[in-house]
Amino acid sequence: MLVNSKFSDVVDDILKEINLDGKFALDATCGRGNDSLKLIQNLGSNGFLYACDIQEEAINSTENLLCSKGYQNYRLYKISHEYVFERIEEKLDFIIYNLGYLPKSDKSIFTKAESTIISLREAINKISKEGIIVVVSYLGHQGSTEEREKLSKFLKNLDQKKYKVEKIEFFNQVNNPPIVYKIGVI
């Protein structure tokens, strides 16, 4: 389809564009594990997935999903995405962030602008030469407008000689649709 109807289709299209077989990826906000599952399927048996979240419920949900599918080539961390890069030695080929809160959970626990920007500063230093960083930004939770504004400012100010940033939004949708940012290294 030339025009996607939801943000997850955008992420799926990005994953189709790149070859992650045998490479390293990070789900920086693993939530219910859906992106982790998509990533690990694309990594194949020789690739490796790292994933993190601050909530035990998210880690357990992701663990259960990946285990139920028979995957073993992953490591989960119950920490904020701002600290996860201290635990990863390899350069990463794909990093994804889904900002906001854990679906069907406590909405008072959510990503925050400060930790997201700190994490993205680390991510752009950890991404491989042909790597991609995807950030899905939602509105509607406490602090989400500030987070999106700071995220947008941070990404807009990345050196254009080193990074290319695409902003994909559902321009005519109501109710604050998510924006997908795609960051590539030149």
UniProtKB/TrEMBL annotation:
<dbReference type="InterPro" id="IPR029063">
    <property type="entry name" value="SAM-dependent_MTases_sf"/>
</dbReference>
<dbReference type="Pfam" id="PF06962">
    <property type="entry name" value="rRNA_methylase"/>
</dbReference>
<dbReference type="GO" id="GO:0008168">
    <property type="term" value="F:methyltransferase activity"/>
</dbReference>
<keyword id="KW-0489">Methyltransferase</keyword>
<dbReference type="InterPro" id="IPR010719">
    <property type="entry name" value="MnmM_MeTrfase"/>
</dbReference>
<dbReference type="GO" id="GO:0032259">
    <property type="term" value="P:methylation"/>
</dbReference>
<protein>
    <submittedName>
        <fullName>rRNA methyltransferase</fullName>
    </submittedName>
</protein>
<keyword id="KW-0808">Transferase</keyword>
